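Explain my protein.
***
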Amino acid sequence: MQIIYCPAHQLGQSPYRQAVWELLCTYADSFVPPLNQRGSTTQQNLQPGSPAEELPVAYFEALQEQDFLLAVEREELLGFLSFRDNYVLDALHDGVPCVYVSTILVREKARNRGITTQLYGHLLSGQHHTDKFICTRTWSGNKEHLSLLNKLGFDLMRTIPNDRGDGIDTVYYRRSIQEQQQDPERSLSLWQKFLAYKLDTSVYALLALTVGSIVFVCVYLSPSSASTAFVPELALAIATSLLASIFCMLSETYVNYRSRQNDKLLEGLHAFGIRDLHFNKQALILDLLKDCSNYLWVSGCRLILTRKIAPSIARQIRTRPDLQVRCLVCPPWTQSYHLIYGEDHNVMDNYFTVFRTIQQACDGRPVPCKVHVIDKPLFNDTYKFDKVTVTGPFLHARDASGGRITANDFFTYDVIRQSRLQALMEGEYATLWDEAPLELDWDRFQDACRRYRPDMTEEEKAELLQKCCVPIGPERELLLPRVTMEYTEV
C-alpha cells in the first residue's frame, strides 16, 4: 500500500476522484450526523434533523477544496484523509493556526490494517504542511477513532455536550508535531516495537517451533525412514503438533501486537533507552551481580546501598579473578557533598565497611578495585555490570527520625544496551572518573583500618580516610576514550 498526496483543488484531476465520491456515498450514514445532512466540512450546526440531501453533494464539493492523503493499493482506493492547512478552529478560542483533519474514511474490507494510523503518521511527518499543530473533531461515540487519537498522543482540548444530539458530544483534539519533527529517531522499527512490547520471546519461540517442524517434516519425507513405519508416523505426528502450536502462538502474538500497537508509554520508554522499570534496586543489582565477570562500576556519595551489596561484590571478586571494580565517590569532606546533604552526615562507616570488605576478599593479592575521589556532584547512583547499566532518579527529603537530609530512590531502570541513554550515562561516569584528582591508596587504607575505631567521631573517621587518598599519577586509567569508542555508532 502507498499513500499519495493530492493538493487542494486538484482532486478533480486525480484518477481517484470518483472513488472518493463513491466512498462518501457508501459510508455517509456512518457519520454523526450523516454527511448528506452537512453543507460543509466545518459547519457548526451538527444537530440531527438538519435538511438532508439524497447524496452528500454539498459535502463533497467542500471536500475538494482540501488537501488529500490517499491510501492506494493496486490502483484501488482503500481510504483517505482530508485536511485544511493553516486553519483556525473558532471552537478552541485560541486563534492558533493548525492542520485541521476534517474527514477520515477507510473502506470496510480494509479496516483493522492500521491504514488510519499510517495516514495520521504521514500527516505527522510534516511533509505537506508547515503548521505545528494537528487538530480534529469527532463525536463521543466514535470509540475506535478516540482510542487511536489517545494512542497517537492527541490531547482533548474541548468537549461540547449534546452538540450532535442527546448524549452525543462533539470533542476536539490537538497534538503538537514539533517533537516528532525534531526527534525522528523516536520512530521505532518493527523489531524495536517487538522489543518494546516484550514480544521478542514469542518471536524466538516461533522461530524454534518452525525449525523443529521443518526438521520433522524432512524426517517424514526422508527415504531412509520409509523402511520403518513407526518413524515417519511419529515424525508426522510431531510436525503436526508443532504446526498447531505455531498457529496458536502466531495468533496470540499478532493479537498482543495489535493490542499494544502505538502504545505511547512502551514505545517512549524503548526510544528513550529504558528496557525495564524496577522498584527494588537492591534485588535487581544482586541479581545482575551474579553474572558479572569482567568489570563492575559503582558510584555514590553515601554508599548506603553499596554497603548492603558489599558481601556480594566480595564473593564475585573471589570467584571471578578477572573482575575489575571501579568505584567513583564524592565523600563527606568535599564541598559538593555538603551542598547536597549539608553538614549533618553519618556515613563514614559505610566507606570503611565497603573498602575493607573488598580488600579482605582479595586475600593478600593485589586489589582489583580502583577508587577515584571527586569533588563534583553525582546526580544519580550508577552501577554497571559488564554491559548492563542500572541507574535511576532519587528524591531528597528529611529523615523522619533524625531530621537529616536523605535521598530515596523511587524507581530504577536498566538501560538498553547500545542506546543513546546508556552512552550518556556511561559518558558521565567516565568523564567524572577521568577528571578525579585523587584515588584511594590501598596500602594506606590497610594501615588506616588498624587505627579505625567505631566509636570515633565522623570527623575523625573522615580525616583518617582522607589521608588514604593520594593524587593520581600521570599513568592514570582513562575511561572516556573507551566509552567513546564503544558508542561511536550511537
Q: What stands out?
A: Residues 180-186 have pLDDT under 50 and may be disordered. Residues 36 and 451 are 93 Å apart (CA to CA). The first strand starts at residue 2 and ends at 6.
